[in-house]
Amino acid sequence: MDRCFLLATHVGLTAQALEMQPVAGTVAGTLGPGDRVVWTGWRFGLPLVHEGLVTRYERPAFFQDTMARGRFRKYQHDHQFTEIDGHTLVVERLRFSMPFGPLGRQLGKRLVVPAVTKLLRRRVELLRQVAESYEWRRYLDEENIERSMEMEPAQTTSNA
């Protein structure tokens, strides 16, 4: 479970899954309490800047990131990890609202929800692939490797 948690907080692995680049704040390694990351990339043919803050951090079971600056009116993403029979269940809950009133709500339903769902599924699948192989060692430092050696290799189940 701890390995999955740490991989989910890894900036490089997240950048790979989201196809965005960290440009300010914590731009490498794993995120911790209060960390900030400014992401840049392209969505729907438009440039995107998204600044996220780690607003809750309860290793190894839960962390939350909240948008400080970006395209959404509000954005909060919960990452929950539960161990079940030697497997790690990853549950991701995303709450967001769009600007622009009724037009924003329609764009959210028709464009943003499907796109974000696809991104989250891709992210959780990448997390599963890395955690269940020995590839996880590329992302975690020595201190985290020692702690994760207890569960070798991890088994994950997702509910994105």
List the helices and strands and how they pair.
Blueprint: H1 2-8, H2 11-18, E1 21-25, E2 36-43, E3 46-58, E4 62-69, E5 74-84, E6 87-97, H3 101-132, H4 142-148, E7 155-159
Parallel strand pairs: 6-7
Antiparallel strand pairs: 1-2, 2-3, 3-4, 4-5, 5-6
Tell me about this structure.
- By secondary structure, the chain is of the alpha+beta class.
- It has a single domain, classed as Alpha-D-Glucose-1,6-Bisphosphate, Chain A, domain 4 (2-Layer Sandwich), CATH 3.30.530.20.
- It is built from 4 helices and 7 strands.
- Strands 1-2-3-4-5-6-7 form a 7-stranded mixed beta sheet.
- Helix 1 (2-8) packs across helix 3 and helix 2 (11-18) packs across helix 3.
What gyration radius follows from the Cα positions, in whole Å? 16 Å
Largest sheet: 7 strands, mixed
CATH class category name: Alpha Beta
Give the overall average pLDDT. 90
Q: Using the 3D structure, state the CATH architecture.
A: 2-Layer Sandwich
Oligomer type: single chain
Uncertain runs with pLDDT below 50, 5 residues or more? 148-154
Say which CATH homologous superfamily is assigned: START domain
Keywords:
globular; 160 residues; 7-stranded mixed β-sheet
